[in-house]
Amino acid sequence: MNWGAVWAIARKDAFIALRTRAVVLPLIIVPLVLMVGVPVLVGLISGMAAQLDVASTDMEEIARALPPGFGEQYAGLSEVQAGYIYFIVYLFAPMYLVLPLMASAVVAADSFAGEKERKTLEALVYSPTTDRELLFAKILGAWIPGVLVGLGGFAAYVVVANTMTYYVASRIVLPNPLWLLLAFWVGPAAAAFGLGITVIASARVNTFQEAYQIGSLVVLPVVLLVIGQAAGVFILSNWLVVLVGFLIWLLVALVFVIAAASFRRTTLLARL
What we know:
Layout: H1 3-17, H2 21-51, H3 57-64, H4 70-73, H5 79-91, H6 98-109, H7 113-118, H8 121-125, H9 131-169, H10 177-202, H11 208-215, H12 220-230, H13 238-262, H14 265-271
Helix pairs in contact: 1-9, 2-5, 2-6, 2-9, 3-5, 5-9, 6-9, 6-10, 6-11, 9-10, 10-11, 10-13
């Protein structure tokens, strides 16, 4: 493996992508909305409800479905306060995975399809690298920004969530083992899975928008996780998060094997 060439292509991809408005805007807007806007909005509503001693039916239902040990840990809180902490720590947790998935998919969509639009792919195809090195460079160039955006979103969420939970319930709740596992184990796996799918799509379509639309479908499993937990089908635990991360890494390995076996630069040339 020619690591010098791999890193050169990966750095070039990341720098070009981060100078493209269609890539940068989602990387700014989505983290702000998810990691800042949502917890602040729900926190303000919960804080006003707690101060007015108002408990909604929804909060009561959430309070009855608290995970084991939650009641003892947060004894003495009202239903609204306990419900908001449950939302911050558990219910919202699967939504965090949208961040690394989205970030890596956006950058990966620009990997081949963006180069086709900019008419720079032909020079890259003729570069002195093997097919596997070129593919790995494209994957690495999207995975690193995806992981960094995920970790940045995690750091922002910890600050915002602790500020709002202190406002609502006078408690500091993050980071805890569950969220550390999400940020450092499941998040990088989700980023790798999302970009693997998107890179494969990007090599087969001609525009950034087509590649991004196909890659965005990988967010659907996250939506199912959110719905399943909200419906009470399961509650995220440390061991469940470890298992989910392990399964995603297995899928990542499968996607990369398929990508490496099917990727040919001659196919790219035929599509120019």
